[in-house]
Amino acid sequence: MAFFELTGWPLFVVVAGAALALLAVTVVVLPRRRGPGLGKYLLQLVCVVLVVLLTLVGVFLKMNMDNQWYSSWGDLLSNGGGPVTTATVGAVPAAVTTPAKDLPHQPFTAAQTNPASSSFFGSQVDAASTSGQWVHFTLPGRESGITQDATAWLPPSYMAQPQRAYPVITAFTGFPGDVRTYTKAMDIGHHIRSAVSGGTMREAIVVIPDVYPGNNDTECVDSDHGRWETYVSKDVVSWIHENLRVSSDRAAWSTLGYSAGGWCSAMFAVRHPQIWSSSVNLAGYFAPMYSPGQQWKTADPAAYGLASVVRCDSPEVRLWFFSGGEDTVSVNAVHGFAPAVSAPTSLETNISQSGAHRVALWEAQLDSSLAWLGRTSPAFAPLPA
């Protein structure tokens, strides 16, 4: 029944009302009951437990309405989004036949070849690591004036092959978001290791700048609330070149993000194709969608409408998009964006039969998105045995 829809107000009101009514019974009615024994106290205890449970259910329902984690009871009770429908718009990327063996790069510094000597994260490095490792540091912005925390994943061979250059993925969290979504919930390092062992891509570095500090929904744009696009496209990129062993070839640079981070991923690739050649967008969108009360002023708001940008500029970038079929915001966003795409821009859309806006769906698509990188970019393609 529509009345009991998981994302509807009626169900929330019923649950909240039941919790309030039961609370009133617990604190007003039951204490006035007379009678010997422990019966009334046990009844009070049961009522308290039920009030707590109903309160937790109410909080979940309200947060689910705000974030659209589960669009229906079926989505809540299912393990995934079902079959995925794939379509390509614009240029069709040719499958890589000759992977780039030695990636071009600038001469490496001593700190790059010996990560333990890095002034940013050297003390965290495990020189004996053969499974990859996370490091955390503060990344200063000389041009933007912004200084923020950042996290990087160094692949398994990074310590043992000091002269090797790697492709790099610049990744973005959603809003509100936490880097632990990548390091724990999604465990992108594990997925990269699996892709490498499965022969679908080569090892890559992942760098995750914090672009959503506190409760500031920056949308990664340059605005009156900070030059966040400049911070990433200038300061973060420069820092990566100066401190990590990455290739100078744009084919070795990709973005990746989920939800609001998916927007950032697409925006940086489309607006800065000279830096990033590809983008993975997990349930994001293609124009800024600010949180209530955070409509920041930008110098040219139209410049952030990516449909207009690709229609006018036709950047030579590859975009990979996924959304759950019941995630109406993301599905509508890609349907509005796709008609503007034409060669040499490439857009691959992947939409599951069901599923809303939640991490489990996106994590399940990491293998497919990483395999796409390895299939379409010679710099991410698996190295020959």
Structural notes for this entry:
With 385 residues, this protein is α/β, with parallel strands linked by helices. It folds into 2 domains: 66 residues; 301 residues, Rossmann fold. It has 12 helices and 11 strands. A 9-stranded mixed beta sheet has the order 1-11-10-9-8-4-5-3-2, sandwiched between helices. A two-stranded antiparallel sheet has the order 6-7. Helix 1 runs antiparallel to helix 2 and helix 6 crosses helix 12. The longest helix is centred in the first third of the chain and has 29 residues. The chain is globular and about 85 Å long. It starts with 8 loop residues before the first helix and ends in a 9-residue tail after the last helix. 43% of the residues are buried. The mean pLDDT is 90.
TL;DR?
With 385 residues, the protein is an alpha/beta fold. The protein is built from twelve helices and eleven strands.
Layout of secondary structure:
Blueprint: H1 9-29, H2 39-67, H3 73-77, E1 84-90, H4 110-113, E2 133-140, E3 147-154, E4 168-172, H5 180-185, H6 188-197, E5 205-209, E6 222-223, E7 226-227, H7 228-243, E8 253-258, H8 260-271, E9 278-282, H9 306-313, E10 318-323, H10 328-337, E11 346-352, H11 359-364, H12 366-376
Parallel strand pairs: 4-5, 4-8, 8-9, 9-10, 10-11
Antiparallel strand pairs: 1-11, 2-3, 3-5, 6-7
Helix pairs in contact: 1-2, 6-12
Residue share in helix: 25-40%
Order of helices and strands: HHHEHEEEHHEEEHEHEHEHEHH
**Lateral strand order in the biggest sheet:** 1-11-10-9-8-4-5-3-2
- Span of the ends, CA to CA: 57 Å
Radius of gyration: 24 Å
With helices defined by DSSP (H or I, 4 residues minimum), what is the helix count? 12
> What is the 3D form?
globular
| The named CATH superfamily of the largest domain | Alpha/Beta hydrolase fold, catalytic domain
